[in-house]
Amino acid sequence: MLDERDDVIDGENEVRPGLTSLRKAAEGKPKLPHVPGVDPREIAEWMRDARTNWLSLVIDSPGERLGVDGFRFGDTDSDTSDGAATSDTEANRIWQENSMDADSSLVHYGAMSQRRAFVLVERGDDGRPVLTHETPTQVAVEHEQGNRRKLAAGLKLWRDDWTGQTRATLWTPTQVHEFTTKTQAPAFSGRSAELRGWDALALPNHPDGYRTNELGAVPLVPFINRRNRRPEGFAEHEDVLSIQNRINLSLINLIAAMKYGAFRQRYAAGLEVDEDPLTGKAIQPFQLDIRKLWTTDDADVKFGEFAATDLVPYVRAVEAAVQDLAAISRTPPHYLIGAVVNVSGDALKAAETGLISKVRDRQRVFGESWENVMRLAFRVLGDETRAKAWSAETIWRDPESRTVSELADAAVKKASAGVPWRQRMEDMGYTPAQIARMEIDRAADALNATPAEDPQPASLQAKRDAKQPTTDQPVIGRGDVPNAA
Predict the structure, then answer these.
(1) Is residue 84 scored above 70 in pLDDT?
(2) 3-state DSSP call for residue 373?
(3) Any idea what DSSP says for residue 282?
(4) Which H or E element spans position 132?
């Protein structure tokens, strides 16, 4: 678990980056490339100027389109449809109480940049669920044998800044164990059957350091990114690290060529150079300066200059590597290059097709985890019905870029096809809270609307109908003269 922070060499003699390397690469702090004949300290200085972090775009481009709008629990065991509406409202309350509109992006970014992330579901002091984001450097889980969906245990290891000690919490479906140690860099050894250096944390009501797990389940929910590449997760930028290293090397070579080869070096042939009478060393006859001109009285001296190094191949090498990075990571090229000239909207939408497919795949995977989080939250509240609501569904924000006119036109066509009003509002991108407010406003507008003709009360209308003659002959009113014509 915790050994995954450092780089390791696998059986194929390939370096597998650790969590620390993945984090630094995502932050734009890659390893320095090796350039023969150049001092590493000088390379580090150049790297500060040449650093272009394309990997952050690889992570941010799908992450900024992963927005959770709410939850739909569908049919519950209740006899009416009120249960579904109540569960949606209660789920939204849990979400807002824990500021998950902001913290959910931390979970998504953590999973995409460090292979996986976790959400811890606990009971607060007021009895309400508390959701917190956890990182893989502090948390590890163990699945049941042959079942990757059910957890057998969960462990969190962290440094307590108040006491200066390192604490650990171990959850099983039946018990919760608390440990503490004074070791600066503790670790759990998988080869030892005993905990060396760890002591049970004595609590006021649990002096033995363990208590009953009232939830009956491990309160950790993993968010694993790209599990199809590796069961324990695969970072969003992990397969393009080598391309970023190639870009860094090309940029370093470009700076070296700019510094040492882009300036036209001048020479003087046939010039007598004076020597320093004290040191005997040659005295520099001219100084390179844009404001000075080289002159001499000797007519036999010839001046010339060397051609500057062509920088175009270095620039093209960087552009080719960026195109490879865009193709492998399915990042739209205009995100990376930033040049959009005379491009139609259909062409831009086609360029984003790969990114949209990738985002929808992440929505399916992360959506299952968010539904598990909500089921655990309802279990904290003691609502076993919704804690077992397997029909729960995460409502995601539409990842595609659409104009308001496109959404409105689609809503009109869906209305003609019989799509319910609430579903049309969800398709237009409104959140469940906004839709609930609009339903109230629609009902208020319907009540306040003035009818075309004021209807008569039912009692007066009945009396008027009773006074109407039952004969089919025409009734002539006062002042009417038949056959006046």
Answers:
(1) no
(2) helix
(3) B
(4) strand 129-134
What is the three-class DSSP state of 211? strand
Q: Which of 115, 116, 132 lies closest to 124, judged by CA? A: 132
C-alpha atoms less than 13 angstroms from C-alpha of 197 in its C-beta half-sphere: 14
Buried b vs exposed e over 166-185: b needs ≥16 C-beta within 10 Å? bbbbbbbeeebbbbbbeeee
Residue given tokens 């920088």 in the structure block:
311
pLDDT tens sequence across 237-246:
999 999 998 9
Cβ-based neighbours of 178, under 8 Å, separated by 6 or more = 167, 168, 169, 170, 200, 201, 203, 206, 209, 210
Q: Three-class SS of residue 324?
A: helix
DSSP, res 376: H
Q: How many CA atoms lie within 13 A of 97 on its CB side?
A: 17
Q: Which two tokens stand for residue 352?
A: 């984003």
Sole residue written with tokens 């056959």: 483
SS3 label, residue 71? strand
pLDDT at 454: 53
Give the residue from 359, 431, 381, 423 showing the smallest Cα distance to 71.
Answer: 431
> Kind and range of the H or E element at 353?
helix 353-380
- Rounded to whole angstroms, the Cα distance separating 44 from 394 reads 46
CB 189 within 8 A of CB 197: no
Distance CA(85)–CA(91), nearest Å, equals 10
CA 156 remoteness from chain centre: 23
SS3 category, 252: helix
- Reply yes or no on whether the pLDDT at 295 is more than 60: yes
The dihedral through the CA atoms of 65, 69, 70, 72 has a sign that is negative
pLDDT average, residue stretch 404-420? 89
Backbone angles phi, psi at 420, to 5 degrees: -60, 155
Bridge partners, residue 179, by sequence? 168, 200
Cα–Cα–Cα angle for 187, 193, 196, nearest 5°? 45
Radius of gyration of the chain (CA): 36
Q: Which of 6, 2, 18 is nearest to 185 (CA)?
A: 2
How far is CA 118 from its chain centroid? 14
Q: Which residue has the higher pLDDT, 255 or 235?
A: 235
CA–CA distances in Å: residue 151 to residues 52, 191, 217, 296, 370: 40, 21, 8, 86, 16
Using the structure block, give the residue that is written with the tokens 């508390």: 130
Task: Write down the pLDDT at residue 196.
Answer: 56
Residues 6+ apart with CB under 8 A from 245: 30, 31, 33
Q: What is the pTM of this model?
A: 0.77
* Residue 65, pLDDT above cutoff 70: yes
Report how far residue 332's alpha carbon sits from residue 367's, in angstroms, rounded to the nearest whole number. Answer: 24
